[in-house]
């Protein structure tokens, strides 16, 4: 045993105590993340205070500079605010559109926050009335920030939640940020994306992130900050494949290497997925009810048989496949199909069922949530199929194959051929019609040889100048809202009654307004996916346009308002996009590449 002089023992005890104290008091990565959050929240408060003070005195360029400074301070906070305080995030950075609860249709929640303020700061004028509106929005933003400051003492980060929040924020960056969704007037999507990557690097460094992750984040931010990069010219395809995918892969690997688990939340995108672009990222059961059937071969065989069964409509002889034809991408190729009512047509175009499982609402007006309810609504609708499920059950019992098919699909049930099981089996079959493996998907996963240069240009236009990606969100290319994909947006486009754009008349279908009589939802319809759109003509809820060329021209001209129609609630920007003939052709080529 080594002898320690008596005179040194007190010193060693002090050193040991100091070392122990240092180890115990050293803040954890989650605690350092909270300190980072506090620092940027204080900085955002200061930046907004400076902007508010300058509203009445400063010239527009100065206000724009101060507005940009506020945005730069918000972006490092975005991952946490969106994760822990989503309602506050909506009030800070939501779309400049009103929201309403069905229970209070006449009491809309007016938009507020950065996007509303941006319209004033980057608008054409700065008169006294506009300055008053700027001041009002600055006050609104400060109110939300003060609320976040008040909630700080009770906010607790965990390691798994921090990585989850960062990952979701990167999904938000790709699906909404790069399209210009939250910077429509200033068009600062690209530099703001660089700030988001910087913030991701800062936070992951608090967890001693692997050098590979730090390197990819640094490279991605440098790519976004290259000289001469503009919103319209930015190569989103190259960024996503060369930088974004490696960042997500290294974030996933770094979390595993640090022994940090994935949250147990049930979401549309699996929390443990490497990327929301991965082939297995989406979980269709998230959109299904608790009693939804699993997609076993026996269940799908039954559902497939029922899908083609004319007995579902009784004497009318119409099956699901009569209107959702597999050879027409599960649409029907008609403007609208015939009603079973004498001398009438159905009110709306038949949508494709491909990808219907990845939607939180069904029908153009979103009137039901689950596919099981959609099946019931269609079968029992006297105009569409005119069936009665009790009579359908009796008719199927008289057909020998169905006794066997139901028994195989429901082996544990004594009486498997029931009305609920008919709905469940059909819904399970429709739920199986989900494939996310187009050439565009393969490209975004790294196989960059599968798209032509024209198709890549079309993707960049879709996600940028043409503004398609601000409503048809990546990677579902529908109105299902990222990064949680738990709700779907409806838009007012001002669709004309016919393709005659020289003498246009607004289509009179009230759309979602019919459900709850919410004024700003007059003529609003769910934003569908554009996957397989090249195979599902004609287009829009009324089948007004026969070709994708007509659809692109409609958007290029600013929708109904751009055609000169009175559409006061239009959510589509009425400004002309100014797409050239070559740009339109590239956009059409990209849409062709979305065929599954």
Automatic annotation (TrEMBL):
Leader peptide range in chain numbering: 1-26
Pfam families per UniProt: CCP_MauG (PF03150)
UniProtKB keywords: Heme, Iron, Metal-binding, Oxidoreductase, Peroxidase, Signal
Record's subcellular location: Cell envelope
Domain Cytochrome c residue range list: 298-434, 453-595
Database matches in PANTHER family: BLL6722 PROTEIN (PTHR30600:SF10), CYTOCHROME C PEROXIDASE-RELATED (PTHR30600)
Protein name: Cytochrome C peroxidase
Organism of provenance: Hymenobacter edaphi
């Amino acid at each position: 045993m080594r002898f320690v002089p008596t005179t040194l023992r007190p010193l060693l005890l002090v050193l040991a105590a100091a070392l122990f104290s240092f180890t115990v008091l050293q803040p954890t990565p989650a605690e350092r993340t909270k300190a980072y959050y506090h620092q940027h929240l204080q900085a955002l408060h200061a930046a907004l205070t400076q902007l508010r003070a300058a509203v009445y005195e400063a010239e527009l360029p100065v206000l724009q500079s101060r507005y940009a400074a506020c945005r730069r301070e918000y972006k490092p906070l975005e991952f946490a605010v969106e994760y822990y305080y989503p309602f506050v995030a909506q009030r800070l950075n939501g779309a400049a559109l009103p929201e309403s609860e069905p229970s209070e249709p006449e009491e809309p929640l007016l938009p507020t926050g950065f996007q509303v303020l941006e319209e004033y700061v980057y608008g054409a004028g700065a008169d006294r009335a506009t300055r008053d509106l700027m001041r009002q929005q600055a006050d609104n933003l400060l109110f939300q920030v003060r609320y976040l400051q008040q909630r700080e003492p009770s906010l607790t980060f965990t390691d798994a939640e921090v990585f989850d929040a960062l990952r979701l924020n990167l999904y938000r960056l790709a699906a909404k940020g790069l399209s210009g969704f939250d910077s429509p007037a200033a068009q600062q999507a690209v530099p703001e994306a660089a700030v988001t990557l910087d913030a991701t690097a800062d936070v992951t460094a608090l967890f001693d992130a692997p050098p590979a992750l730090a390197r990819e984040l640094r490279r991605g931010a440098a790519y976004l900050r290259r000289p001469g990069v503009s919103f319209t010219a930015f190569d989103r395809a190259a960024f996503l494949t060369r930088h974004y995918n490696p960042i997500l892969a290294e974030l996933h690997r770094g979390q595993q290497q640090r022994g940090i688990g994935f949250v147990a939340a049930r979401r549309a995108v699996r929390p443990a997925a490497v990327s929301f672009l991965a082939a297995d990222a989406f979980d269709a059961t998230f959109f299904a009810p608790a009693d939804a059937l699993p997609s076993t071969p026996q269940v799908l065989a039954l559902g497939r048989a029922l899908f083609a069964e004319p007995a579902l409509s009784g004497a009318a002889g119409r099956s699901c496949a009569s209107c959702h034809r597999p050879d027409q991408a599960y649409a029907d190729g008609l403007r609208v199909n015939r009603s079973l009512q004498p001398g009438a047509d159905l009110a709306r175009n038949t949508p494709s069922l491909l990808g219907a499982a990845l939607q939180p609402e069904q029908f153009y007006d979103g009137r039901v949530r689950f596919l099981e309810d959609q099946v019931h609504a269609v079968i029992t609708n006297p105009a569409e199929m005119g069936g009665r499920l009790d009579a359908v059950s009796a008719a199927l019992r008289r057909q020998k194959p169905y006794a066997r098919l139901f028994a195989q699909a429901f082996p544990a049930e004594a009486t498997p051929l029931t009305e609920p099981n008919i709905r469940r089996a059909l819904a399970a079959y429709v739920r199986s019609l989900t494939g996310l493996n187009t050439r565009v998907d393969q490209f975004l996963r790294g196989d960059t040889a599968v798209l032509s240069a024209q198709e890549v240009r079309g993707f960049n236009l879709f996600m940028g100048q043409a503004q398609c990606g601000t409503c048809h969100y990546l990677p579902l290319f529908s109105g299902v809202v990222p990064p949680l994909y738990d709700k779907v947006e409806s838009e007012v486009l001002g669709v004309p009654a016919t393709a005659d754009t020289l003498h246009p008349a607004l289509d009179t279908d009230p759309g979602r307004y019919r459900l709850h009589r919410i004024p700003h939802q007059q003529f609003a319809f769910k934003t569908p996916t554009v996957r397989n759109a090249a195979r599902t003509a004609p287009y829009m809820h009324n089948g007004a346009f026969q070709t994708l060329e007509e659809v692109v021209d409609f958007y290029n001209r600013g929708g109904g308002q751009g055609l000169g129609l009175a559409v006061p609630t239009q959510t589509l920007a009425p400004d002309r996009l100014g797409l050239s003939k070559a740009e339109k052709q590239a956009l059409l080529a990209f849409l062709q590449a979305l065929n599954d």
